[in-house]
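request received
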Amino acid sequence: MKDSKPVPDIVIGRLPIYLRALTHLLEEGQEVTSSKEMAERLGISSAQIRKDLSHFGEFGKQGMGYNIAHLRDQIRRILQVDRIWSVAVVGAGDLGHAIVQYGGFEGRGFRVACVFDNNPEKIGLRLGKFEICDVAEMPERLKEMGIAVAIVAVPAGAAQTVVDALVKGGVQAILNYAPITVTVPPEVRMQYIDPVTHLQRMTYYL
Amino acid sequence: MKDSKPVPDIVIGRLPIYLRALTHLLEEGQEVTSSKEMAERLGISSAQIRKDLSHFGEFGKQGMGYNIAHLRDQIRRILQVDRIWSVAVVGAGDLGHAIVQYGGFEGRGFRVACVFDNNPEKIGLRLGKFEICDVAEMPERLKEMGIAVAIVAVPAGAAQTVVDALVKGGVQAILNYAPITVTVPPEVRMQYIDPVTHLQRMTYYL
DNA sequence: TAGATTGTTAATCGATTAACAATC
DNA sequence: TAGATTGTTAATCGATTAACAATC
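response:
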């Protein structure tokens, strides 16, 4: 941690993997780990793990390794998941349902705060503990609630319109499950999940 | 396409994105595109698109660009998604339900062929058009059906056991939704989807 | 022909790895 | 002290980009 250059995004992308592994080790009751042990678990080189962490500070002790709870807390802080982010979910289909019901956000920095859909037959119904809201009112609702993070679970054809409305509502980070690349202003972060692209990446090798 | 070195995996990872964009352009009725147009749509440089494609052949015409249907067919062939892969889904919870009901596999090279769970109360029940099978019988069933691709949608604690059983059943490509890094033999391909890691990658910048 | 765009080369840029002094 | 492991440097490796001849 000596230069002022931005940390490469590829490094940022590995921090959540480290965090997940540390949490897992902690649940197993372990207190200390090493870059070597992490490397074996994750299939990443130990040098890379040390180099990645060195962008942010010195978290280990020579000869001793890393205190797991401490390193976890540091990475949480770096990633800003030492707080809870309210997340809007757009799309109340099967996937939206699975996302809203998913118990895995708790404890990792996120909480679903509201659900939107554009289908008049769904608006007003309950999904888990939420009442499904009209996407038409989304921008205002997002602003009111101060929501910065959203998950898009709508068909590809609706994704760009939904994303535009999210941006209008002040959302700055969007996870898009719709299988289409959307356009956003440069200040908005996008991430994509399309299971088919992951599968296609593997069939090449079969 | 002149050397015999393996094509970098990072290039393989972009082909499904190109394929998705080409299919989209075709649906819009367009017949020809250029590396420049694709680049603008995808937020990738045109040089990179041309270089990626050049690993596999010459698919365009100078001054004219690419015939979309032709390039799409070529990428489908390269990725081996010019056939239909039968996919096993493990885990019949909300996520497994969403995956089985998802209509987006059709036309992109995949079809859900069977569903497994370890919960005796679920085994034998229907999920969509499938009867939920016992994971205990999974390895034999996979071999019988000749299944090479699987999707894991079980809790983290069960993932390694499930993956071991899939490998035993001859599966060679696994898409894991459980938020844990698993160990597989080197000949088995793994891909991961953990929405929380994607979200955490974005909150760093907020 | 003139304009456009490919496929490819070489240069640049960035990421990973190997190695080791520092030190717990 | 001896052994282990960090944090960091320099070397290696690989990926991206710029540029342009080829050519449709």
